[in-house]
Task: inverse folding
């Protein structure tokens, strides 16, 4: 990655996805025992950060005269690619797992993309998308591997460095690694004193284990409510980048993710998908590490089935005390 | 009001409150039968638009060497004034009704302001705040009457005109009138083809009735869940401004406000306070008027007691069909 290319990416991305809010949330900070700033990546037409990357991908394809593109997606990338494809008049095919949240599948369809649903998990979708790309001779967008997806996500880093120069730590959801490597790279260049901490669920720990062992570690299964980060096969080149830019990679429990979602609702009024609560979960599990420090957490998506959400978070704040006391 | 002063206000307001997101929400648009853009005024440290005004007020007082200020508040203004006061080292006293949402009262206290709670409604708080100002010889901030509060709110209009130049109509919650007159004024100057539509609950119709009759009409009571707009005594000077800039003022039912909150949760993932759902409620009640047009609705606040919220919106989407069918 190069900083000049990340800066250039800003010129390609629809401004509706840029300069997202970053704001302190005192109430959440009091609950967590540190100063918390929220970088909100959900207040845009696709409710996640993913369009920063798809805008760069599709902008490049358009300049090359391409007219079609395919990706595998856990949901958010597919909706974002559909959105960018529609903006630029490009045919988009998205392959997703049948297990993806219905809310995400519905949005992909509504975006105008052709959605193909496969049995199995995200890795099955990846195989099928690669097959479609080969057969049709069209570009396969590989999230995290394709530098455009990392450069797009990295534009978040430019903004964080400017909006929160005093941040002691930035907490980043870790899945395939586009956001972690992109944002991490920019912060290491522009704000080297800021700690870059990646957060992944214990139930889908492949990239974190890989980072710790400094070699690709795969897992047989992924079992987490954080569907957006539930990969099993880390990409070697992405791991190489992550080893350079991440200061730490931590794993969190499912109960902490749910507690994080609950705190974000109660103290920030935000409905988020599980992946977006990983940062708060990390603070909940290790409060001493963050006590009194200024922490930025990137709220990366809000695409969640509401019935799941209510089950995870509980119907009302009256449930909160019980759940928190039980931690 | 003057456009130059509104532009100058941008230089006084902490950037964390400026350039809030404006984005199209296709899913909400499909549900409402028109193109809907959301201007999101909740992704900031006080979760409402009110700090745009208090920043201008407190910035001016600081320049005059003042050290204390008092206001009456339904909740959001008080939190915003507390926030701006803390930023500028100014003593802030807020008077609020005991009936205000606990979430709002808690936030005012936490902001560092001195909170005085009075019996009666917002108008009682207004009287008490005026008394405190007289006794202590400090500035009474009167929302909507004080031009700074309107100029601060009007900065939203600058952004809407730039972010959504194609908007056919902008829907603005109408309470005291700061937001409606401020945003309306800017839009009439910069985007005269855009319809400025104010929305108020049937249960608190004083300003709308005043606008229709072109004279101040007060009401004996205010009965609405939209606590942020529940005034009874319109200010004559504000009405004069509103008569110049508003193209229409409409009243909506409580059931429509709740349905609007529900749609914003289901289709945009947004938890909002009732006042912020007035725009969506207006579209729900008069779909033909907006069919196929591009409507911007300003989501002005998200400070709501979650137990109230869940009661109004229902615990899950499964409730939605029943309520909507019952409309």
Result:
């Amino acid at each position: 990655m190069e900083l000049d290319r990340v800066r250039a990416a800003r010129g390609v991305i629809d401004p509706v996805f840029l300069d997202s809010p970053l704001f302190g949330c005192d109430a959440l900070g009091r609950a967590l025992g540190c100063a918390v700033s929220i970088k909100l990546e959900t207040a845009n037409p696709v409710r996640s950060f993913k369009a920063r990357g798809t805008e760069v991908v599709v902008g490049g394809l358009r300049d090359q005269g391409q007219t079609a593109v395919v990706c595998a997606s856990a949901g958010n990338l597919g909706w974002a690619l559909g959105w960018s494809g529609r903006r630029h008049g490009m045919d988009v095919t998205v392959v997703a797992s049948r297990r993806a949240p219905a809310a995400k599948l519905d949005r992909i369809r509504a975006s105008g993309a052709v959605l193909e649903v496969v049995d199995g998990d995200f890795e099955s979708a990846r195989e099928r998308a690669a097959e479609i790309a080969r057969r049709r001779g069209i570009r396969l967008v590989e999230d995290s591997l394709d530098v455009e997806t990392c450069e797009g996500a990295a534009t978040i880093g430019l903004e964080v460095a400017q909006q929160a120069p005093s941040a002691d730590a930035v907490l980043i959801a870790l899945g395939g690694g586009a956001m972690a490597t992109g944002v991490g790279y920019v912060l290491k260049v522009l704000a080297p004193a800021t700690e870059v901490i990646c957060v992944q669920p214990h139930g889908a720990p492949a990239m974190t284990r890989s980072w710790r062992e400094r070699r690709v570690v795969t897992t047989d299964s992924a079992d987490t409510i954080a569907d957006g980060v539930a990969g099993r096969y880390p990409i070697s080149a992405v791991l190489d980048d992550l080893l350079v830019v991440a200061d730490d990679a931590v794993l969190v429990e499912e109960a902490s993710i749910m507690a994080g979602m609950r705190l974000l609702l109660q103290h920030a009024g935000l409905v988020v998908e599980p992946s977006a609560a990983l940062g708060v979960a990390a603070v909940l599990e290790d409060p001493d590490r963050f006590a009194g420090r200024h922490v930025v957490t990137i709220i990366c998506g809000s695409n969640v089935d509401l019935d799941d959400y209510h089950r995870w978070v509980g119907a009302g704040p009256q449930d909160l005390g019980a759940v928190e006391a039980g931690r």
In short: The mean pLDDT of chain B is 94. The interface with chain A takes residues 16, 19-27, 30, 38, 40, 42-45, 47, 107, 110-111, 265-266, 268-271, 302-304, 306-307, 310, 315-318 of chain B (CB under 8 Å). DSSP finds 15 helices and ten strands in chain B.
